[in-house]
Amino acid sequence: RLLLDIDTVRDSAATLSLRRPYREIPQWWVEEELGMLGFEILHRQKLPLTLDAEDVFGQLGWARDEISHVHDDKLRAAFEERMRELHAAALRTQSVWEKQSSGSTYALVARRP
User: Fold this and answer.
1) What are phi and psi of 103, to 5 degrees?
2) Rounded to an integer, what distance in angstroms lies between the CA atom of residue 92 and that of residue 24?
3) Which of 48, 77, 65 is nearest to 6 (CA)?
4) Is the pLDDT of residue 27 over 90?
5) Is the overall model pTM greater than 0.85, yes or no?
6) Label partner for 22 (CA 20 to 30 A): which of 2, 9, 68, 90?
7) Tens digit of pLDDT for each residue in 50-63?
8) Does position 23 have pLDDT exceeding 80, yes or no?
9) Which residue, among 93, 71, 86, has the nearest Cα to 8 in the 3D structure?
10) Euclidean distance between CA atoms 41 and 59, whole angstroms
11) How distant, in Å, are the alpha carbons of 5, 22, 36, 40, 70 from that of 8?
12) How far is CA 13 from CA 20, 32, 54, 79, 108, in A?
């Protein structure tokens, strides 16, 4: 839940600043696009994602950067307050989320025949 809250703040701030929010590209779409470009998928691998302090606090930093682009002072202040709450929650609950699974990512090897 913590990462979802951080991601929500980051994407909201980016959108309100007229910047592009972050979106992950699903594997099926990448494979489909590569196929349409004439590539052959040689190898697929799913890789587990495990939470660690670098990831979580890195996400907090990224969110803070997006907040810095919010033009409205009161809105930016509200985002900054929420980030302080999330940072405190991350510190308080680190022993719970650290080393937990956070889904997976993927790797593809493709070539053009």
Assistant:
1) 95, -145
2) 28
3) 65
4) yes
5) no
6) 90
7) 888 888 899 899 99
8) no
9) 86
10) 31
11) 5, 10, 33, 36, 15
12) 10, 31, 22, 8, 32
- Chain centre to alpha carbon of residue 39: 28
Distance in angstroms (rounded) separating the CA atoms of residues 38 and 32: 10
Buried b (16+ CB within 10 A) or exposed e, 85-113: ebbeebeeeeeebeeeeeeeeeeeebeee
pLDDT tens digits, 76-88 = 999 999 999 999 9
Q: What is the pLDDT of residue 100?
A: 78
In whole angstroms, what is the distance from residue 8 CA to residue 14 CA? 10
Q: How far apart are CA 93 and CA 113, in angstroms?
A: 50
Q: Which of 92, 1, 100 is nearest to 52 (CA)?
A: 100
